[in-house]
Amino acid sequence: MALSMPHTNAMPTADLSPTLIDPSAALARMEAVRARIQQACVLAQRPADAVQLLAVSKTFPADSVLAMAAAGQHAFGENYIQEGVDKIVALADLRRSTPLVWHCIGPIQSNKTRLVAAHFDWVQSVDRLKIAERLSAQRPADLPPLQVCVQVNIDDGANKSGVSMTEATDLAMAIQSLPQLQLRGLMCIPDPVDTHAEQVAVFKRARALFDAWRAAGLPVDTLSMGMSGDLEAAVEAGATMVRVGTALFGAR
Ligand SMILES: *Cc1c(COP(=O)(O)O)cnc(C)c1O
After folding, report:
1. Residue range 113-123, pLDDT digits in tens
2. I need a surface site. Which of 60, 133, 181, 229 has the fewest CB within 10 A?
3. 6 C-alpha to ligand 1 centroid (Å)
4. Candidate from 227, 241, 248, 252 with most ligand 1 atoms within 8 A of CB, to mutate
5. For the residues of the chain, what is the DSSP string, one character each?
6. Which residue ranges form the domains of the chain, and what is each CATH number?
7. Which residues line ligand 1 (CB under 6 A)?
């Protein structure tokens, strides 16, 4: 590696070093990820605005979120509750000028629901009724309802978070009747498989369940699936939101 290589903004691909990202690197990575999503939409003959990007900032400092916000990204996802809340609080001032939206996408224990309900805007990782009930009961009355996705264990992986396919619809319907929650859709994290075609097939099962909910009259608009390594397959299968960490912020 040439140590004297000059810095240039014209690099076609952003480097993915785990160091703090500067604003120009943030913008380059953001544009590269947006180009991937757009290309996948073209191939799938879907409109370019059919897929939203959630930037997964877990393990990265608030300054990295700041850099991505300056690059025009407003929706951020966090896995670890306390870490996420610390960032939300640290960036509260920014929120007065920039409409940041925070999504909880990690496992939630009962003793963390109060923190989640008080600080996040969305929760994509609801996989049992008890957690949904606590979130609704603990959502402060002066805040809008929490926007909720049901996390579904779409590929039946053992020891995985997510409600089973067979129980998912009952959970979605129960969430609909909780006053401080607004059901938005379905989230899944399938295990990686060998080929693109297999990955698409797994994601299509999630899309079929999402379509069945819509056909049954559930007012859902969000199918959250696809990450740095498999977002093309997810977009092909009908994702409306992809959750991207590594390709934006670097290796963890
Ligand atoms: C970490 C994480 C992501 C992002 O994964 P990358 O491979 O880094 O893009 C997306 N969704 C969830 C639930 C995650 O935990």
Report:
1. 999 999 999 99
2. 229
3. 32
4. 227
5. --TTPPP-TT-SS----SSPPPHHHHHHHHHHHHHHHHHHHHHTT--GGG-EEEEE-TTS-HHHHHHHHHTT--EEEESSHHHHHHHHHHTTTGGGTS--EEEE-S---GGGHHHHHHH-SEEEEE-SHHHHHHHHHHS-TTSPPEEEEEEEETT--TT-SSEEHHHHHHHHHHHHT-TTEEEEEEE--PPP-SSHHHHHHHHHHHHHHHHHHHHTT----EEE---TTTHHHHHHHT-SEEEESHHHH---
6. 18-249 (3.20.20.10)
7. 56, 58, 79, 105, 189, 227-229, 243-247
